[in-house]
Every structure is written in C-alpha cells, then in structure tokens.
Design goal:
Layout lengths: L1 E3 L2 H11 L3 E3 L7 E5 L2 E7 L4 H14 L5 E9 L9 E9 L3 E4 L2 E4 L18 E2 L4 H6 L3 E7 L6 H11 L3 E3 L2 H10 L4 E10 L9 H15 L1
Parallel strand pairs: 1-4, 1-5, 5-12, 6-10, 10-11
Antiparallel strand pairs: 2-3, 3-4, 5-11, 6-9, 6-12, 7-8
Helix pairs in contact: 1-6, 2-5
Length: 221
C-alpha cells in the first residue's frame, strides 16, 4: 500500500511506469495499479487526518499488505534541515490536541486522554519497530515527528521542538501510524521537507523529489 499527499504524484507514477490505475469497486478512494512486479493499492491523503483514518481502516480491514508506505510533506524545526530533505519518522506524537488551562497547555497525555502503556502504543509512544529491513536500502535519518492541526508559527517552533524532541511536523502522520499499529500492519513513514519553519524563504522542488523517491523505492523493493 502507498499513501501519497496529492493526486499529482499518482499521475506522475502512472506516466513514469506507463501503467494506469483503477478505483476499487467497493471503495472508490482506493486506487489499484501494477508497477513493475508490484500490485499496489494507493490512497491520496490530502493532509486530512479524519478521512485518512477512515480510508486506512477500511483498506486494512480488507487485507494486510507486505508493506504500507506513507510519503508526507513536512515542515522542519531545525535551521539545518533544508527543504527537500528526506527523513524517516520512527516515532509519532500528537502535539496540539488538548486544552489550554490556567497552568498552560495540556496535551492528551497530561489530560490522561491517552495512556502511553495502552495499545497501540509501543515502548511508551507510537514507535515503529518493524521497519529495520528498509533501512538497509534507504538509510534516511530517523526522527521524531509531530502530527498537528495547526502549523507552528515562530513562537511555537522552539516550544514544540524542545518539549517533544521533534524535528518535523506533518498534518496526518499519526492517522497513518495509529491505524497501522492497531492493525499490526508493517509500515514505513517517510517525510519530505517542503518548508523550514525557521526560514521565511523556502525554495524547493519537493514534488519531483517525492516522485524520484517513489520510483526508486518501487524499483528497489
């Protein structure tokens, strides 16, 4: 299974491999394609966690996959992380779901809405323990990623980076990871940085970087 952030990437893959995709008869959001020797189901995420959670639950309820791969567009917290950098998010954390109290911001763990000891948590977090073999082929830097509803402004970058020890944030990473962990689906989450939150100027070529990454992975796996 492949989860991509926009339809343009799907069309790019179709053009590259000269192979069309077809919608699943029951679930129209699930696109099927055959690229090289791979039979691939594709979901276009569009950065909306709620719909992605539903789509993944439906898809993984139908079958398990050899691998579920998500490519996210990410905003980076460190000035040294340049646009188009590819990172391996191995620990996902929810950042801006909670309450603003008189004592300050309280997240889902502070409020006991989630317990780090409860499934599908792994080692006290949403940690990927099943992707080591992929790192032999694609040894990207392993990082902590936050899933957020609101992209950080200047005042939040330092807070989120220091509190959560995170390097990037995405819009829907945890929706993907939570479903995979809950369904015991082997997964891999790569993030391509399309914005550095410490830099007002972000010139990049993210779409071509993502497409090149995907075509390489499909040929290697």
């Amino acid at each position: 299974m492949l989860v991509v952030p926009n339809e343009a990437l799907v069309h790019g893959l179709v053009a590259h491999f000269n192979s069309e995709f077809t919608p699943n008869a029951e679930h129209k959001f699930l696109l099927h394609a055959k690229w090289l020797h791979h039979e691939v189901d594709v979901i276009v995420a569009l950065g909306f966690s709620t719909s992605l959670t539903y789509q993944l639950t439906k898809a993984l309820g139908r079958q398990k996959y050899h691998l579920a791969l998500k490519i996210s567009l990410a905003a980076a917290y460190s000035a040294t992380t340049v646009a188009d950098t590819i990172l391996n998010i191995v620990n996902e954390k929810p950042a801006d779901v909670g309450e603003q109290t008189i004592d300050g911001w309280q997240d889902v763990y502070d409020l006991n809405w989630l317990n780090r000891e409860d499934a599908p948590h792994v080692r006290g977090g949403f940690v990927n323990m099943t992707n080591a073999y992929m790192n032999v082929f694609m040894p990207f830097k392993k990082v902590v990623g936050l899933t957020v509803n609101h992209q950080a402004d200047t005042s939040l970058v330092v807070y989120r980076k220091e509190r959560y020890k995170a390097e990037v944030e995405t819009a829907d990473g945890l929706a993907f990871v939570y479903a995979c962990l809950a369904e015991q689906q082997t997964y891999y989450h790569l993030a391509v940085v399309n914005r550095n939150l410490t830099d007002e100027v972000n010139q990049n070529n993210t779409e071509s970087v993502v497409l090149h990454l995907l075509t390489d992975l499909i040929q290697i796996l």
